[in-house]
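hi! just following up on the protien thing from before. the input was this:
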Amino acid sequence: MRLLDAGCGPGLLAIGFSPYVGSCVGVDPEPGMIRAARAAANDAGVLVRLIEGRLEELRESVGTFDLVTIGRALHWMNREETLRVLNRVVEAGGAIISCGSKAEANPWLEAYEDVRSAWASEQDGRCYRIDHDAWFVGSQFRIVDGIMVRHHHRVTIADLIGRALSKSNTSPEALGDRRQPFEDALTGVLEPFAANGFLDEEIVSLATVIRRVNVGPRSGNRS
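and the predicted 3d structure came back as:
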């Protein structure tokens, strides 16, 4: 099967899914994210084809896919243009998985988000949370399942800085020459919560499964 990771960012979903599919393509408009994804895929020893550009402008020559994953990027995409492309690239019987997460009341979270908000190029007012029913209404896609996993793990300050840099409004491109002071500010607020270099975190991971329905004949190539 072929998988497309739309708005792939630093490649977390593409790299995670790559061993379980026949081929994997990631697309993202930010050059810094593509560079980070390429380095991470190389470190992980997986093959991911990476394309710099917007999903809405994806060329027909890329082909069609059995599965499209979207992680915390749908809110940045133009709905009409994105649906037009998804109608073209998602195979009959194929699906979209919209992935996200929410942090629980971790003791360091408020300080972390305060710094991120203060340095962000624009606030998260456009919201990472999507009403999937409303977003896909009137389209050829229907929500068929939802998956939630709650888990505890340990993270480092470097992990949390990397997470902040993976967000569009605090990406390396958005920060420019402010990146190092931003990283220093995050380090300063997180260090009091770290023990032996680690912080405890509880995360709820969410996935909305959206399947293509009522698909009529259409052209497309699988390349």
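The helical segments are 12-17, 31-44, 79-89, 109-119, 132-136, 157-165, 172-175, 179-190.
The beta strands are 2-6, 23-28, 49-52, 65-71, 90-103, 141-156, 198-212.
cheers
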